[in-house]
Amino acid sequence: MVAKAARRVLSPLAKYYSGVLGVELGIRQTLKLLNAQAAFFLTVFPVDCPLALRAACLAWLVAALGGCRRLGLKVEE
Question: Does the structure show a pLDDT above 80 at 75?
Answer without folding.
Answer: no
